[in-house]
């Protein structure tokens, strides 16, 4: 029998960016909020002077424990899915701050085109531009960029984003709160080359601080030291905007917020007398193995893509998507991102061992519909990136493609190239497809007795066509930068492989929209079937973009928080 705890106004599942934002905004309004976080408590003191690539980058100190909860994977529906024993392709976090603790800080906005992709594509190119599968799966989000802009602005001020105006971007209501980061020699090389090609490079919008900053909630962030330990690491200087140094502090300072750590949620409980409401959640204390029931007026799912989907599925909330019939919405619209490019080898040495997670330049000339697609067999595109995130001895070991994988030649190439290689790469859109989706695995269970999530996913022909186009642009820029040798990744990448790391930028599974027939949540992230249940995160995306998703995730979290507050006041379903 689960032990029942004292009721709260709001319970969030997870204490990362989304859970932290909802907690901060609702507690400022006087609501009592509890966050259930399956990982441990950690803060900046735990990261002082710990530049340990093996512990954090290789052995995943900040990541989800795959021995307790993982997922199974297959490329096609007729294959047997097998468990992932060690995360590779993506890296879900756990513990205070969630994946927001180990992110790079790249803080883009999505484009107007992203939110209205189906209607804008068909208006410009006609309905034939989308294939039968595309036309079935692609749709608008039910919300526009203009609707989202105020929430983007709020998050960028909370995170102290360092950046500059994008000539290809949408209209901003205010400038970035901080100036861009330092433009290094390599970034200047990229900028000059891109401009020679008549492209529009800008400094990457960065949640690494270019200067000391106090955000609107009074939280202090320090100037970045360019130590090159950002992605897969927490910041020891409080110089990277993360949930634990911003919104979680803000929420806790109100006196209305509590985080309960080592608490793995296993079920969302529906009211037996009112099937349109939930009454709380069940969770397991992972240290004592005791089961608890946390009652709440409002439940907010604010965890990673797979966990948001899973908790709805195991709690029998919503209708599972069926690829055979196309019916159901839960588990649909799962998308990923591709990150291919080209590597240039130079005679000169560069200080690439220094850097920061979002120290870089970016251009959107080949993103969205910023270029003509009439004669191309794909839609959308990707941003082109050049970053100086830091070179480290274990995972940064670049050699030419024809170099032996061991022996003297391998060692000589490794040493020589350590600070003489530069990569230009793309972060590319992928769209929804009928055969790419999430479901519950019928065989494998997690440590708490629930089914594991089953991922069915593969690249499409359009993904390969888009990749081939984009890597050519990367190669052209490296030529202009003066590389003496260039290795270009093959755009035709075959079957999706779950083993090598590619991106943590996942999307879909609980897609949003303005029609319950094709979405799981409405545009306030409120579940169509449960009035007091909200689901926020990139699981709500209808497709993935050619930009980093964190800015959009957090903008949606601010919108969700507004919806939670309004629902708590009126106890009525929200309208757009």
Automatic annotation (TrEMBL):
UniProt-listed InterPro entries: FAD/NAD-bd_sf, GMC_OxRdtase_N, GMC_OxRtase_C
EC number(s) per entry: 1.1.99.3
GO MF term (any one): flavin adenine dinucleotide binding
Annotated Glucose-methanol-choline oxidoreductase N-terminal domain residues: 215-328
Annotated region described as Disordered, given as residue ranges: 159-180
Enzyme class, first EC level, given as a word: oxidoreductase
Leader sequence segment: none
Alphabetical UniProt keywords: FAD, Flavoprotein, Oxidoreductase
Entries under PANTHER family matching the protein: LONG-CHAIN-ALCOHOL OXIDASE
Family indicated by similarity: Belongs to the GMC oxidoreductase family.
Name the UniProt record assigns to this protein: Gluconate 2-dehydrogenase alpha chain
Taxonomy of the source species: Bacteria, Bacillati, Bacillota, Bacilli, Bacillales
């Amino acid at each position: 029998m689960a032990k029942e705890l004292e009721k709260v106004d709001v319970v969030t599942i997870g204490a990362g960016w989304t859970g932290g934002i909802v907690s901060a905004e609702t507690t400022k309004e006087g609501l009592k909020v509890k966050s259930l976080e399956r990982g441990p408590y950690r803060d900046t003191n735990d990261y002082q002077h710990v530049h340990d690539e093996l512990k954090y980058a290789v052995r995943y100190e900040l990541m989800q424990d795959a021995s307790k909860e993982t997922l199974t994977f297959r490329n096609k529906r007729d294959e047997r899915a097998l468990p992932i024993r060690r995360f590779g392709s993506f890296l879900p976090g756990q513990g205070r701050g969630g994946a927001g603790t180990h992110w790079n800080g790249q803080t883009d906005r999505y484009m107007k085109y992203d939110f209205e992709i189906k209607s804008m594509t068909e208006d410009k190119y006609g309905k034939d531009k989308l294939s039968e599968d595309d036309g079935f799966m692609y749709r608008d989000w039910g919300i526009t960029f203009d609707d989202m802009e105020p929430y983007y602005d709020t998050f960028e001020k909370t995170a102290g984003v360092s950046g500059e105006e994008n000539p290809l971007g949408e209209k901003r209501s205010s400038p970035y709160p901080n100036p861009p980061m330092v433009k290094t020699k390599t970034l200047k090389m990229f900028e000059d080359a891109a401009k020679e090609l008549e492209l529009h490079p800008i400094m990457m919008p960065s949640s690494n601080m270019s200067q000391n900053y106090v955000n609107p909630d009074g939280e202090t962030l320090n100037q970045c030291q360019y130590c090159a330990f950002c992605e897969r690491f927490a910041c020891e200087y409080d110089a990277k905007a993360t949930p634990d140094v911003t919104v979680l502090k803000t929420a806790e300072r109100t006196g209305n917020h509590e985080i309960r750590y080592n608490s793995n949620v296993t079920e969302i409980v529906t009211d037996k007398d009112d099937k349109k409401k939930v009454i709380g959640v069940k969770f397991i204390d992972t240290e004592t193995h005791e089961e608890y029931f946390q009652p709440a007026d409002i439940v907010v799912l604010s965890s990673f893509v797979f966990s948001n989907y899973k908790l709805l599925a195991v709690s029998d909330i919503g209708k599972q998507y069926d690829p055979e019939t196309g019916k159901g919405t839960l588990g649909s619209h799962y998308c990923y991102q591709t990150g291919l490019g080209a590597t240039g080898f130079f005679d000169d040495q560069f200080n690439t061992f220094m850097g920061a997670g979002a120290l870089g330049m970016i251009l959107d000339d080949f993103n969205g519909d910023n270029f003509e697609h009439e004669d191309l067999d794909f839609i959308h595109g990707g941003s082109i990136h050049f970053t100086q995130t830091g070179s480290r001895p274990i995972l940064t070991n670049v050699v030419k493609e024809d170099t032996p994988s061991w022996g003297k030649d391998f060692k000589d190439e490794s040493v020589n190239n350590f600070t003489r290689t530069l990569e230009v790469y793309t972060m590319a859109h992928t769209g929804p497809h009928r055969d790419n989706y999430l479901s519950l695995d019928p065989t494998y269970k997690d440590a708490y007795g629930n089914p594991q999530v089953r991922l069915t996913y593969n690249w499409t022909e359009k993904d390969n066509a888009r990749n081939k186009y984009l890597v050519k642009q990367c190669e052209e820029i490296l030529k202009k930068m003066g590389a003496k040798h260039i290795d270009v990744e093959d755009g035709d990448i075959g079957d999706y492989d779950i083993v090598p790391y590619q991106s943590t930028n996942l999307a879909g599974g609980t897609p949003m929209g303005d029609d319950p027939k094709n979405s799981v949540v409405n545009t306030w992230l409120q579940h169509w079937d449960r009035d007091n249940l909200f689901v926020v995160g990139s699981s709500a995306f209808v497709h993935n973009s050619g930009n980093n998703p964190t800015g959009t995730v957090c903008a949606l979290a601010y919108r969700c928080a507004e919806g939670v507050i309004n629902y708590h006041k009126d106890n009525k379903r929200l309208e757009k």
